[in-house]
């Protein structure tokens, strides 16, 4: 009986070891980022900036516990943010407008749990821990007024550092889907929901950053 139990235990451990799988590799892709602003001191409450289109690049590591469940961790870099354009005209033909583009240079650390529907197709849910390394706002002012116009220290066109006005950590839960070919090439898509208030100016307003990502990568390793 002891021999039978020992053989059974060895067999189970062997199957378990065979099911476990570690893969790693590079990934890169396209990102669409938006910023939502709830400025308590502004009439434009709950306004959403237009999408900023950018790229991301980095690497990933995946560990499968069995045929259906696994975990994944990544390190990515992306210049997230948003942009907006405001224009005003009157009946006399006077025109005034400006464009703002906000860029957050962000180091992303996504950690997720994965469920494998088939060997190649999986869905994931997790959290993106974004570390904002830099924050800049570029403003372009346009007008046909005969006098110069200056807003927030920007005359005509300029860029300013807003890192002190933005918190360093952007926590964003996400859901996603991935499909991997037999050779290790994979394609994925996910959406990260901005829940962290990034405003650090003490005005009581709220700034959140959400973003979608579509990418491609390659996994090395496996059984």
Describe the structure in your own words.
With 223 residues, the chain is mainly beta. It is built from 1 helix and 13 strands, in the order H-E-E-E-E-E-E-E-E-E-E-E-E-E. It has a domain at 20-83 and 105-131 and 165-221: Porin (Beta Barrel), CATH 2.40.160.20. Strand 10 and strand 11 (185-192) form a beta hairpin. The longest helix has 18 residues, at 2-19.
Summary tags:
elongated; 1 helix; Porin; 223 residues; 8-stranded antiparallel beta barrel; mainly beta; two-stranded antiparallel ribbon; 8% helix
- What CATH calls the topology of the domain at 20-83 and 105-131 and 165-221 is Porin
Shape: elongated
The CATH C-level name of the domain at 20-83 and 105-131 and 165-221 is: Mainly Beta
Subunit organisation of the chains: single chain
Q: Give the DSSP E fraction (strand runs of 2 or more residues).
A: over 45%
User: Structural class of the helices, strands and pairings?
Assistant: mainly beta
Q: Main sheet: which strands, in order across?
A: 1-3-4-5-6-10-11-12
Q: Write down the overall mean pLDDT.
A: 83
Give me the count of strands: 13
Can you tell me the CATH architecture of the domain at 20-83 and 105-131 and 165-221? Beta Barrel
Low-confidence stretches: 4-18, 146-156
In percent, how helical is the residue content? under 10%
Number of helix segments?
Answer: 1
C-alpha-based Rg, rounded: 24 Å
H/E series: HEEEEEEEEEEEEE
Straight-line N-to-C gap: 32 Å
Largest sheet entry = 8 strands, antiparallel, barrel
């Amino acid at each position: 009986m002891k021999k039978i139990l020992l053989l059974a235990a060895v067999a189970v451990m062997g199957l378990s070891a065979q099911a476990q799988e570690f893969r790693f590799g590079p990934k890169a892709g396209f990102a669409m980022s938006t910023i939502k602003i709830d400025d308590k001191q502004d009439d434009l409450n709950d306004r959403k900036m237009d999408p900023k289109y950018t790229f991301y690049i980095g690497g990933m590591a995946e560990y499968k516990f069995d045929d259906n469940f696994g975990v994944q961790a990544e390190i990515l870099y992306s210049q997230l943010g948003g942009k907006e354009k405001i224009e005003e005209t009157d009946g006399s033909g006077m025109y005034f407008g400006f464009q703002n583009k906000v860029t957050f240079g962000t180091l992303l650390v996504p950690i997720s749990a994965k469920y494998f529907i088939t060997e190649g197709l999986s869905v994931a849910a997790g959290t993106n821990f974004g570390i904002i390394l830099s924050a800049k706002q570029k403003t372009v002012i346009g007008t046909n007024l005969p006098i110069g116009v200056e807003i927030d220290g920007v005359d005509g066109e300029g860029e300013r550092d807003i890192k002190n006005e933005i918190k360093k950590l952007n926590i964003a839960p996400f859901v996603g889907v991935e499909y991997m070919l037999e050779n290790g090439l994979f394609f994925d898509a996910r959406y990260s929901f901005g829940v962290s208030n990034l405003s650090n100016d003490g005005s009581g307003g709220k700034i959140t950053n959400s973003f979608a990502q579509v990418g491609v990568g390659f996994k090395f390793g496996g059984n």
